[in-house]
Amino acid sequence: MRSFTRLHAARLCSGIALISLPAVARADEVAQATAGTEASSPAPVASNEIIVTATRQSQKLQEVPMAINVATGQDLQKFKIFDVKDVSQLAPGLQLSNADGRSNTTTLRGISFNPDQGTSPAVQIYYNEAPADAQTVFTAIYDIQQIEILRGPQGLLRGLSAPAGSITITTRKPKFDTVEGEVQATATDRGGFNVQGGVSLPIIQDKLALRVAGLVDGNRINHVTDVTNGLRSRSRTESGRVTLGWKPNSDVNVNLTYQYLTADNRQLQQVVGTGNTPYNIPDTNIPDTTVRSGPPLTASDYAAVQDGIFRSINDTHLLNLTADWSLANSRISFVGAHQYSKLKISRDLDAANALPGYVMFSDVVMPYNVNTAELRWASTNRSGLTWGVGAFYYRQTGTTTVHQDGSQLLTQAAPDALVFGSTTPNLFQVASFTNVPVQSTTWSFNGNLGYIAGPVRIEAGLRYSILKNIQTTQLSLSGDVTQPPTEIIPPELQRNVHKPVTGGVTVDVRLSPQTNFYVSYGHAYRMGTTGVATPAGISNDLVQTQPEQTDSIEAGFKGTAFDRAVTYSVSAFYQKINNYISRFDAIYYDAPDAQPQNAQFAFNYNGDATIKGVEAQIGVKPMRDWDFNVAASYTRARFKNAMVPCNTLDANGNFFVRGPGNVSYCKSNGRVSETPDFSLTANTELRFPIESAGVTPYIQALFVYTPGFYSERVDYHYQNRENLNLFVGVRAEDAKWELSGFVRNLLNQKRITNRGQGTGQFNTILGGVIDSGYRGVNVTNPREFGVTLSHRW
Predict the structure, then answer these.
(1) How many CB atoms lie within 10 A of CB 296?
(2) How far apart are alpha carbons 470 and 754 in whole angstroms?
(3) Mean pLDDT of the 583-592 span
(4) Strand partners, 637
(5) Which residue among 372, 512, 544, 774 is least packed, with the fewest CB closer than 10 Å?
(6) Which of 205, 144, 145 is nearest to 179 (CA)?
(7) What pLDDT, on a 0 to 100 scale, did the predictor assign at position 265?
(8) What is the pLDDT of residues 122-175, one digit of tens each?
(9) Would you say the pTM of this structure is higher than 0.85?
(10) Mean pLDDT taken over the chain
(11) Among the residues of 221-351, which ranges form H helices?
(12) Is 622 exposed, middle or buried (0-12, 13-18, 19+ CB in 10 A)?
């Protein structure tokens, strides 16, 4: 009933790693990062070496046979990574987006997904090694030990398969021998504030310890003000975390973590356009010039026009348990987690104000109840035969409820009442009540073998999974049309069971003590999904997608030179996706119940795709007090002769369906995601130590280049973006305190990062289309100044 397309990308979420900072972790951070994992103790490392557990064993970053980015907690604090919009500035080829204020998504190597698809994400998120919901984990990034981004298909090492990669987030653990802590406070000139900190308290020396951490954060999100009702976008997040660590002896390590989070986001949809006088005077075709959808607006206005609100409240409880038991040359590990979240969303569906004076309400309650458990037994051999076996369990339940206004105007005249439920001659009033139960279960079993002989390491493994999913939808109607609760999903599409085999193989060769070469193959799988709110009367291919399978091969070099004054890595990859699952918005469809005509909908659909690219980074330390890093990514992700839903127009500019189906299909070789092929990031820090005063002044810069590109989906050419952030500060020689000032978006560029497919419109039953004159957009945040003070003890 509504052709305005919600925007699906732009505002960036928090918490990702730097591809360009491979050598900044301190020795104490390395020790904490590897504590409590099943990995064997690593060989002694230099104080600037990073240890990662991406392969489920502790390894030096430069020796891991895959493309991986790492950010320690120190990195996150260094570049003020506690606001969602900052993350894409740190890793080229990575985009975290929040399209609608409620759903965080991740795009990596050109592969993305829309949360409304109902599929598993393209990039899986793990919190302390357990699968977690991105909406919660990205909402509050604080007291973090380390973040690792694994690029490429994931089908073996962790329980859930993903075509683009995985992100693992590890929180700081308690220290058993000393009291330590830190606090950091930040304020900006645009109403932003962030206060976070944590403290470790030994309870029984070397046996039992506690760490407590917390966060309070507020900001204006996309800095949009509503010119219709005077409201402004704003967000407030509060979170607390308690971790209990127990080490009864040197062979056992247990950590129990509980986190609570509450987040209240009020994110208005920015629009651009001339506006319009959408209503006619009753019983005439003469425009009513006294009522406008809003004034002419540009990207630099940061303005919304909707009559109603968009408010999203997230309350989450998260419990996580990790336990490791070292045996002779092996380790048994358990990871278990429980997450319960409730997301409440209230919004005006008419974000472009095509119906001035009328609020099309939508109220959604989304519970997220997930239990996971994983048991692993793996060898800790550093030469000869290596092995590992494991079992994984995942279950998600909960029923989403939606109460939504689906009313229609009979003609283009204004409605006579502003409240749903009133009897008016021009308004055909209908509201829907929808229940969408979620029942998803995964069992998987994996095994891997490897052999290490001198400079050569070979590893291979397989994972067998049993995926079960029940998808149903009960719909009822009230108002001028009533309908009791009715199941709308065909019986043959309600239950899905898949049993895929995924896995991979890697060959890693140490060419010299400073250089590694690797080649790897990976296979991933995603189960298809059933659309739980698709229009009635359409063909099954538009209701349920086919399973997706991914095959990828990658080769790369990693190394250091000049006594680690230079670090570098280069990787090239080719990936083929059969039946890539994508979402196509605002597609005109023709079905027996399509009322009014020109109805549009968002459909999930499959299409083959290929992805190929190159990633490279280099870090240089020209002198003791100067670091310089550059990283770049080129990824060409395209459909390959895919027949996908599209819109076709006749000679008069009217939609029509070409062919025998419910929608038109077009052959596509276009972009898989709305992202450019190339991106680059560079950063530097120059220090000026004053030994006599015991302080070190410094200056830092972070630069990100994103080229412009043409989008076929929205028929728009996005402009280049050059984003420069500057940081100036002073820290104590022992790093106990630090004071810094910063400016984000120094050039104050105001560029559209995402654009809707068409203007916001409303189809009347008898009188044609009402046009708002606006498109939804997302725009880079304006220039912002801030100051941060931190103290450690």
Answers:
(1) 11
(2) 34
(3) 82
(4) 611
(5) 512
(6) 205
(7) 92
(8) 888 899 999 988 777 788 889 999 888 888 888 888 889 999 988 888 999 999
(9) yes
(10) 87
(11) none
(12) exposed
User: In degrees, to the nearest 5, what angle opens at C-alpha 170 toward C-alphas 164 and 175?
Assistant: 165
> Tokens 């987006």 sit at which residue?
97
* Cβ partners under 8 Å of residue 204, min gap 6: none
Q: Which of 69, 62, 70 is nearest to 512 (CA)?
A: 62
Give yes or no for a contact between 377 and 388, defined as CB atoms under 8 angstroms apart: yes
Instruction: Domain ranges for the chain, please list them.
Output: 27-792
Q: Rounded to an integer, what distance in angstroms lies between the CA atom of residue 703 and that of residue 722?
A: 7
Report the DSSP beta bridge partners of residue 345.
312, 364
**Residue 731: both structure tokens together:** 């820290």
Q: What is the pLDDT of residues 608-663, one digit of tens each?
A: 999 999 999 899 999 999 999 999 999 999 999 999 999 888 887 777 888 888 99
DSSP code for 609: E
Answer whether 566's CB lies under 8 Å from 558's CB: no
User: Comparing C-alpha atoms, which of 554, 631, 635 is closest to residue 18?
Assistant: 631
Tell me the pLDDT band of 7, cut-offs 50, 70 and 90.
Answer: very low
Judge whether 9 and 102 are in contact, CB under 8 Å. Answer: no
First vs last Cα of the chain: how many Å apart?
59
Shortest CA distance to 704 belongs to which of 87, 188, 111, 107? 87
For 271, half-sphere exposure in the C-beta direction (CA atoms, 13 angstrom radius) is 31
d(CA 446, CA 275): 57
Read off the amino acid at residue 454. Answer: G
User: Which secondary structure element, helix H or strand E, spans residue 577, and what is its range?
Assistant: strand 566-588
Sign of CA dihedral 489, 490, 494, 500: negative
Q: Which of 164, 182, 159, 27 is nearest to 91 (CA)?
A: 164
460-494 pLDDT, tens digit each: 999 999 999 998 999 999 988 899 999 988 899 99
Instruction: Give CA–CA dist 570/558, Å, rounded.
Output: 7
Is the pLDDT reported for residue 47 higher than 60? no
Instruction: For 365-409, write each residue's pLDDT tens digit.
Output: 999 999 999 999 999 988 999 999 999 999 999 999 999 998 888
In the prediction, which pLDDT does 285 show? Answer: 81
Residue 423 — pLDDT band, cuts 50, 70, 90?
Answer: low
DSSP-derived 3-state class of residue 116: helix
User: For 287-294, which contacts have Cβ atoms below 8 Å and span 24 or more sequence positions?
Assistant: 288/413, 288/414, 291/356, 291/357, 291/414, 292/356, 293/352, 293/353, 293/354, 293/356, 293/772, 293/773, 293/774, 294/227, 294/228, 294/353, 294/774
Count, residues in the chain? 793
Determine the Cα–Cα distance for residues 287 and 319; give it in Å rounded to an integer. 58
In angstroms, the CA 465 to CA 445 distance is: 6
The 10 Å Cβ neighbour count of residue 759 is 22
Q: Among residues of the chain, what percentage have pLDDT more than 70?
A: 90
The pair of three-digit structure tokens given for residue 205, joined into one six-digit string: 């020396």
Neighbours of 728 (CB within 10 A): 14
In angstroms, the CA 302 to CA 307 distance is 16
pLDDT digits (tens, 9 = 90+) for 502-554: 999 999 999 998 899 999 999 999 999 888 778 877 888 999 999 999 999 99
Using DSSP, state whether 771 is helix, strand or coil.
Answer: strand
In terms of Cβ atoms closer than 10 Å to its own Cβ (0-12, 13-18, 19+), residue 315 is middle
Coil, strand or helix at 84: helix
CATH 2.60.40.10 corresponds to the domain 27-792: no
Q: How many CB atoms lie within 10 A of CB 749?
A: 18
Contact 679, 718 (CB under 8 A): no
DSSP string, 723-736: EEEEEEEEEETTSS
Partners of 629 in beta bridges: 619, 683
- Map residue 194 onto helix, strand or coil: strand
